[in-house]
Amino acid sequence: MATQPPQTLNPGVPLRREWGTAFAALRRLLANGDDTEQVFRIMRALNGDVTQRNYRKLLRVQGGGKLAYRRLELAQRLCDRSWIDSFAPGTLGAAYRDFLDSTGYSADGLVQVSMVEGGFQGIDVEHPYAWMGRRERDIHDIWHVLTGYKADEHLGELCLVAFSYAQTGGLGWGFIALGGAIKSIRTTGRFDCVKAICEGYRHGKRARWLHGEDYEALLEEPLETARRRLGIAEPARYRIAQARLEAAGIDAL
Fold first, then answer.
1. Tens digit of each residue's pLDDT (9 = 90 or more) over 151-182
2. Could you give the CA distance from residue 186 to residue 213 in angstroms, rounded to a whole number?
3. Does residue 151 lie in a domain region?
4. Exposure check for the chain: N or C terminus, fewer CB within 10 A?
5. Closest by alpha carbon to 48, among 10, 13, 96?
6. Per-residue pLDDT tens for 110-131?
7. CA-CA-CA-CA torsion for 129, 132, 133, 135, nearest 10 degrees?
8. For residue 26, which of 183, 242, 201, 251 has the smallest C-alpha distance?
9. pLDDT of residue 118
10. Which one GO biological process term can you cite for this protein (predicted)?
């Protein structure tokens, strides 16, 4: 008997929340903080219509309509190494280049992980909401650089997911941040990490809405200038928690 092809999701229909899937994925993620696939399972299970809402918001902000009209595929742009190498020292783009080189991460790698169980629509899906979902995925590592939250440590990821929850309203982000905060108390016996995660949320609320930025232009901007313009504050609580984790010899939450 021929195998039926998997059903293609309609990006125009909000996903139904699946709490059982979310809790199972969170358990696996908390057991192994490097299991990035579980993040995308949680996003699909809980984010509902957040991509649709953020796309509609993009159309209302200054310059957002132009971005939506152009529909630039950021993953393709961020995989153009000659473009990445062109950024002048001190720019966000140069800092992003250093991030790629120091971590070994890539925009294409994030794309591959995101496709677990159809967690994000592929580039062949031509729909405004699908494009917005890809855009939300592709700017994640740029947000790491902008905020100062490291991507290759669990606390940095937890702080950024709290920041992302504040920025996007995606329940999946908040669910991960809460689960990670609770686990950090059990792991460390302290509240330093909780304070850092809460700081990430506050910084996300106070910053400008980063989805409305033109990322080609933003990467050309001096990093510190961009942070000031966007209202991204220094992550002081995060630095304190980092130092205490290092002093205690804890490298995983």
1. 999 999 999 999 999 999 999 999 999 999 99
2. 38
3. yes
4. N
5. 13
6. 888 887 755 556 667 889 999 9
7. 160
8. 183
9. 59
10. ubiquinone biosynthetic process
- CB-side exposure of 226: number of CA atoms within 13 Å? 25
Integer Cα distance of 122 and 112 in angstroms: 10
Q: For residue 3, is it within any domain?
A: no
Q: What is the pLDDT of residue 18?
A: 95
Torsion of CA 181, 212, 138, 79, to 10 degrees: -140
3-state secondary structure 6-52: CCCCCCCCCCCCCHHHHHHHHHHHHHCCCCCHHHHHHHHHHCCCHHH
143 in any annotated domain? yes
**Domain with 178 in it:** 19-247
Sign of CA dihedral 162, 167, 172, 175: positive
Structure tokens at 68: 């939506």
The sign one gets for the Cα dihedral 29, 160, 133, 10 is positive
Low-confidence ranges of the chain (pLDDT < 50): 1-6
Is residue 12 situated within a structural domain? no
**Cα gap 158→139, rounded to integer Å:** 16
